[in-house]
Amino acid sequence: MTTQPITLIDDPLAAARQSTIDLLHSHQQGFSLPQPFYNDERLYAIDMEEIFGQEWLFAGMTCEIPAKGNFISLDIGDNPIIVLRGAEGKVAAFHNVCRHRGSRLCMKEKGKVAKLVCPYHQWTYELDGRLLFAGSDMGDDFDLSKYGLKPVHVKTAGGFIFISLADVPPAFEEFPAALDHYLAPYDMENTKVAAESTLIEETNWKLVIENNRECYHCSGSHPELLNSLMEFDDTEDPRATPAYKALVAKKGADWDAQQVPWTMTKVGLQNRMTRTPCSMVRSR
Ligand code: FES
Fold first, then answer.
1. Calpha distance 56→170 (Å, rounded)
2. Burial (CB count <10 Å: 0-12, 13-18, 19+), residue 10
3. pLDDT value at 66 more than 90
4. Residues with beta carbon inside 6 Å of ligand 1?
5. Spatial contact of 107 and 118, defined as CB atoms under 8 Å apart
6. How far is ligand 1, taken at its centre, from the CA of residue 111, in Å?
7. pTM above 0.85, yes or no
8. CB within 8 A of 224, min separation 6: which ones?
9. What residue ranges do the domains of the chain occupy?
């Protein structure tokens, strides 16, 4: 008897992808994106696939998992992920999904384990993802070595943990190197979390990012913030006042003497790093 192949829909979002491209082409420079980018579920699904499923994402700090067996778990869309500290201090990340019948392995947001034991039927995994125990029901010829946890790409830099769900993640060398350089004086690996708060914003993620990327709203909404922080952090910014530039020059000399990195480093369009003085020098 021949088995008929099951036909799956290749890409249920194909039409939405083309519409998205058309919408992007209709976007007017200097204006918000067309409305569907903020409230259309199909575009959100494409975001999750093309951006959150491909890019390197900040997942946590290495100081949150200081010792072997410490873990943090998080969800990237529908993907539950576990990030843990394995043997010899190695940080690893896996899909938080048992290879037996797909139960979540770690139910808590953070904790410490000797092994990863599935709560459903107790399949047991080593901290490096290897399957160690699958009970006796699987039969004598069951090959444990084929059912380790699915790994997730992970990279650490300057105490930050980044993960990528992509099969082949994008190049990610320059920014981690800059992070390592800037944060070396602070020994982030050995810091401790003093307090945590969770802020859930009931909106599309793009609105959050757009709001974060402009400080046009700061003087009206956060005047207290601007008592200590400028609306800019670059002496090349047209808004940079002579007083600000003079202060940066003075502080820069101090930081150089202390061997503290501070000059503006821009990595592509996405990332930049600098050290900026907090002061009462106002921009207006
Ligand atoms: S689903 Fe994990 S052991 Fe069965």
1. 8
2. exposed
3. yes
4. 98, 100-101, 103, 118, 120-123
5. no
6. 20
7. yes
8. none
9. 14-52, 57-190, 214-273
